[in-house]
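Q: Convert this sequence to structure tokens.
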Amino acid sequence: MAVVITSVTPRSPAAKAGVKAGETLRAINGHEINDALDYGFYCYERTLQLDLGTRTVKVRKRDDYDDIGLNFETYLMDKKHSCRNKCIFCFIDQLPPGMRETLYFKDDDSRLSFLQGSYITLTNMNDADIERIIKMKLNVNVSVHTTDPELRKKMLCNRFAGDVLRYIKQMADGGITMNCQIVLCRGWNDGEHLRRTLSDLTSLVPAVQSIAVVPFGATKYREGLPEIALHDENSAAEAIDIIESFGDALLEKYGERIVYPADELFLTAHRPVPPGEYYGSYDQYENGVGMWAYLRDGFEEALADIDGDGREDVVTCATGVLAAPLIRELAGKLTEKFPNVRVTVYAVKNGFFGETVTVAGLTTASDLIKVLTPQKGSLGSRVLIPKAMLKADEAVFLDDLTLDEVSDRLGVPVIPVGEEPEDLIGAMIGE
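A:
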């Protein structure tokens, strides 16, 4: 595949070699370039022969890791690979109509798994793709869900979904490290199915370096989709017991638990969320595994190092229903050192997606406004929200209202707060 060079960074090695925007990159040192992974892998050498179709250019770098300075139309150099599955639990299939178009795109791209940490089902891949991953030593994240081939076909609604499970063993044998996830659907892949899946995956440790078990989440937009019951106290407790039976054995053998229940399972089962050391290296943090412990333990440690004072302030925190009890607990600890700082915490019920959605990151501006508008006279100097409520690269909520628009409607600044415990303490005390 030939890739058009859209621009060349000034004074870069490629610019010094005379490469021009508009030329086409075909190969580097004789290796065909199809995407960003090929480009990054074959650019590693100090001296590069660039095949530009009509001519060949030699580029020299001072260091192996230097960027040669070529820029392309897209980050991946071609289009993202879209998902071929129709998973029974897919959140995107449960979105309401009328949202921005990008939210409906389902990627299942091994390149993004390596570059950005997204999870892949392997159904978009073939033997050549696996060979390339092994050759380039690209560690990936895999959505497994079940290792029963027939059940996996049913859950992913893809007749090839069971066949490609062999790729996991192939990658493990090739020295590839994998993080795996299981979306736990009550009545589908729980119970003995969960035991089988964990047994199969943990037999591949240390190639499988972590496994997250995350409960299925439903919105109110499931019309026409398979019926899946939400987890209750008993089913969540049963899942935790199965997971911890494996985790205990792995902890004894490897010094880490490897397999972890999501925080939501502990909360649903009405069990205490374990301390931070339970989660080892927090390999599954982005999957909602250990977030509660990380914030709780880090907040207490950071607060212990701060001298309190008599400053006066009134602050509002707004978060999802799931996190609200923890934020109230932490706010109480803060006022022990800052007795004149009053922090009120509001749990924002999710009317947009449905009240079964309780995580802060799926809270919309409209729900935030609905909850806080009646409190406009007592919100204090600012409203604090988790940064996860906004787009990663823009101050926009899921329902397309901006941070400034919400601040205007509430009459006070709305401040997004990062995920580090120190961020929350600083925001609460105005530093």
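Residues 233-254 form the longest helix (22 residues).
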